[in-house]
Design goal:
27% helix, 13 strands, 3 helices, single chain, outer membrane lipoprotein receptor (LolB), chain A, two-stranded antiparallel ribbon
Length: 197
């Protein structure tokens, strides 16, 4: 009887040992499929709210982000009379249009001035969609069973993705949390759409 019990336990443990790698392989496969379904969409629009927290700054702004291949157009509205600030540009240069005035500079520098934390605009365009920016190393990836990213780290930011919803662009996160050295942001995306040209 004791031998049967031991054999049964070994069989169960061996069985569990073979199930786990299969699950991991399935999740990895699902992750590759998910990324492949998101990457081709280079013309999109997202409506969201971003709240930021840092030792020197705390606040939130609403954004309407349009991406056309490498070019972006972001309308920002928020507190303190910030209404319809328009930021346009690409990965190299951006322009802020506000109250009849313009300011030109690096998109990363300009977005930091607006939201108060350092974030790469190119990376943020990918994080919005729940996928890593392909030009930077990504680590510590955790995947939901369906294949979407739950967590990963990139550019010094620890990122968490939640509340995925089917959209015209695929399965997108509606909530994104980011933290880095005492700084944090929360993105709540309310709307996704394709841009047709």
């Amino acid at each position: 009887m004791r031998k049967i019990a031991v054999i049964s336990i070994i069989t169960i443990l061996y069985g569990c040992g073979t199930i786990t790698p299969r699950t991991d392989t399935t999740q990895t496969s699902n992750w590759k499929i998910h990324q492949a379904s998101i990457f081709p969409h280079s013309k999109w629009q997202a409506v969201a709210k971003i709240s930021v927290q840092s030792p020197k700054y705390s606040g939130s702004v609403r954004l309407n982000w349009k991406q056309l291949d490498e070019n972006f157009s972001i309308i920002l509205t928020g507190p303190l009379g910030l209404q319809n600030m328009l930021m346009t540009g690409d990965s190299d240069e951006a322009v802020i249009h506000y109250k009849g005035k313009t300011k030109v500079g690096s998109p990363n520098k300009l977005i930091k001035e607006i939201i108060g934390i350092p974030v790469q605009i190119n990376a943020l365009a990918y994080w919005l969609r729940g996928i890593p920016y392909p030009n930077l190393i990504q680590t510590n990836l955790l995947i939901y069973p369906e294949g979407q990213a739950h967590k990963f780290e990139q550019a010094g930011w620890s990122l968490e993705f939640d509340k995925y919803k089917q959209t015209p662009l695929g399965n997108m996160p509606r909530k994104i949390l980011g933290s880095k050295k005492g700084q944090s942001f929360k993105l709540i995306i309310s709307q996704w759409s394709k841009i047709k040209i």
